[in-house]
Amino acid sequence: MNKYIILILSLFFLGFINAQEQETQPFIKYHETIDSLMQISYERGIFNGNVLVTRNDSLVYQKSFGYTDDTGQTELTKNSIFNIGSISKEFNAVSIVMLIEKGELKFDDKLSQFGLGLPSWSEKVTIKHLLNYVSGIPQIDYDNVKNEKDILKDLQSLPNLLFEPGTKYNYNNNSIFLQRRIIENVSKKTYQEFVTENIINPLKMNNVAFDPNLDYPNKTRCFDVDKISCDEISSSKDRLWISINDLNKWITALHNNKLISRASLELLLRNQYFKNKESSLGVYQDKFALHLHGGQSWQYEAAFMSELKNDLNIILMSNNKSKGFEIIQSMHKIMNGKSFNLPKKSIYRQIRNKCLENIDLGIQYYYDLKKDNLNIYDFANPKELNGLGYDLLAEKKIINSIKIFKLAVSEFPDNAKLYDSLAEVYYTNKQYELALLNYKKSLELNPQNTNAEEMINKISKK
C-alpha cells in the first residue's frame, strides 16, 4: 500500500475519532489529523504555503509545504513572508480607531476635513462610512490609474457618488486609500511610519515589510497553476508582506485588547449599516465568538479563523492560491472534533491547459471528468469556473473566456456573481446588449449588486 493511500486511511480514521479521546491528548491528535489533511492537500497540488494553529498561546501545529517561488528551488520556512491581501486592511482600520480612542479623530468626521481637495460630496462621507464600505465612492479605476497620485486625481475629479452614503454597500479599495490618507493627515506621519511605530514594533513583529523588493529577505513570489511567477504590479502602495507567526501576533493582540478596546473591536467586527456584510475586520459569527477573514492578491491567498472565547487561531498563507478557504474550514472542524471533508482537486487547474489550447475540447474534458470523477474534482464550487474565466480573460482569450462563463451560468443558474462576470466579459468585448442582459440577470438574483446597477446605468447611456 503506497504512502498516499495510507495517508487517506489515516485521515479518515483520525477525522472521526471520539471527541472525548481528543481531550486526553488534544495536541497530539489534532497535530496528526491536521498533518494528514495538509499532506494530502499538498500532494493533490492544491496547497503551497504555511500553516499555523495555536490554542491558548500554545503551538498545536505548524508546518511549511512547498516552495518560495515558481522555480521550486527554495523551500518555504516559518519566516517566509507572504502578501495577505485584504487582511492587511485590518491595520488601517485599527490605526484609525487607535486615533479615535486617543481623541484625535471621530467616527463622524467628514472626509472634507482632511485637505484632500475632494469635491463637495466629501462633505457627506464620514470615516464611519469608509470603514463600513457604504460611502458611495466607486472602486478604483484600475484601467486608467498607474499610481497613488492618479488615484487621488481620479477622486478629485469624481463628480458624483454612486449612491447616498449609508444607503448601500460597495466594497472598494478607494475607501482603503482614503483611510490611509486620513491617518497620515492626523498623525503627521506616513501610513507605514504610523503602523510601524504603533503596531509592528510594540508587538515585536520581526518578519514584516511594506512593498518589499523582489530580493527582500524571506520574501515569497506568487505563481499560477502552470508555475509561472506573477508580475506583482500595483497602482497602490503600502502592500503588506508578513510571516505567519507575526500574523498570529497581530490576531492575538487584537483579540486580547492590546491595541484597541473590546468595545472598539466589537464595533469594527460588525458592519454598522448592513447585517451579513463584511466589516473592516472581515466577518464574525456567534456573537463575536468566531472571527474570520481572508485575503487574495495576485496568486497570494491568506485566511484565518479565530475563536475568541477559546483563544484558538488557525492561519493559512499561500503563494499559489487554490483551496485555502476550504482547507482552513476543515482544520477548524478538526479542532472542534467534527467530521470534515477532504479537499478535492481543482477542476479549474485540471482543464486549464486544454482550454488554452482548444476551448471546445477543454469544455468537453470538463464534462467527461464530471461523469466519472465527482468524488475527486471540485464541481460544486462556482469559484472554480469563475476563476478560469478570468484567467482566460487575462490571457487575452476573450472568446474562450465567454464560453467558460456561459458554461458557469449553465452549471450554476442561480449565481448572481457568475452572471456579473459573464456580463463583464461581454462588456469588455463590446457586446453591450448581451452585457446589459446579464447585468440585469445578476441584479435580479442579487438586488444588492451595486456594480451591476452601476454598469446597467453606464451601458444605458451609450
From TrEMBL:
Domain Beta-lactamase-related: from-to ranges: 36-273
UniProt entry keywords in alphabetical sequence: Hydrolase, TPR repeat
Pfam families recorded: Beta-lactamase
Residue windows of the TPR repeats: 416-449
GO MF, one example: hydrolase activity
InterPro entries tied to this protein: AmpC-like, Beta-lactam-related, Beta-lactam/transpept-like, TPR-like_helical_dom_sf, TPR_rpt
Segments crossing the lipid bilayer: none
Family annotation (SMART domains): TPR
UniProt name for this protein: Serine hydrolase
Organism annotation: Aquimarina celericrescens
